[in-house]
């Protein structure tokens, strides 16, 4: 059964970012934290339908979590639900969500993979 797949598209280690050089800023291991201190990261994630995800503890998404980041989320295809402590919102292609460090989880309740772009910016903790 497929797990959630993530691709790092670009990463900056500081703000303001440097445009010098021509090295690939994403040519590094997948980061352990969403964004480096004072930096940014641009990811694309693919969430398989919930029915095809592995069980919790077997490579499944960690579930409800918070990060010390501001996240700009754009759903590119499929459908995905953002679960919050006090409700939820279902995103369709083209929908945008801004997550400002609140507890949340993602769940694909549809039948097709959900593909999401995520721009993550380091932020002060709540």
From TrEMBL:
This is Cupin type-2 domain-containing protein. It comes from Novosphingobium fluoreni. SUPFAM superfamilies: RmlC-like cupins. Pfam families: Cupin_2. Residues 1-36 are annotated as: Disordered. InterPro entries: Cupin_2 (IPR013096), OryJ/VirC-like (IPR047142), RmlC-like_jellyroll (IPR014710), RmlC_Cupin_sf (IPR011051). Residues 61-119 form the Cupin type-2 domain.
């Amino acid at each position: 059964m497929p797990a959630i797949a993530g691709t790092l598209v670009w990463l900056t280690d500081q703000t303001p970012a440097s445009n010098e050089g021509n090295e690939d800023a994403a040519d590094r291991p997948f980061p352990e934290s969403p964004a480096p201190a004072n930096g940014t990261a641009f990811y694309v994630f693919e969430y398989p339908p919930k029915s095809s995800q592995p069980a919790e503890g077997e490579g499944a998404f960690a579930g409800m979590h918070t990060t010390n980041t501001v996240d700009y989320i754009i759903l590119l295809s499929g459908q995905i639900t953002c679960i919050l402590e006090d409700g939820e919102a279902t995103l369709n292609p083209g929908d945008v969500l801004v997550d400002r460090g609140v507890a949340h989880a993602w769940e694909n309740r549809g039948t097709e993979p959900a593909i999401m772009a995520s721009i993550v910016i380091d932020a002060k903790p709540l």
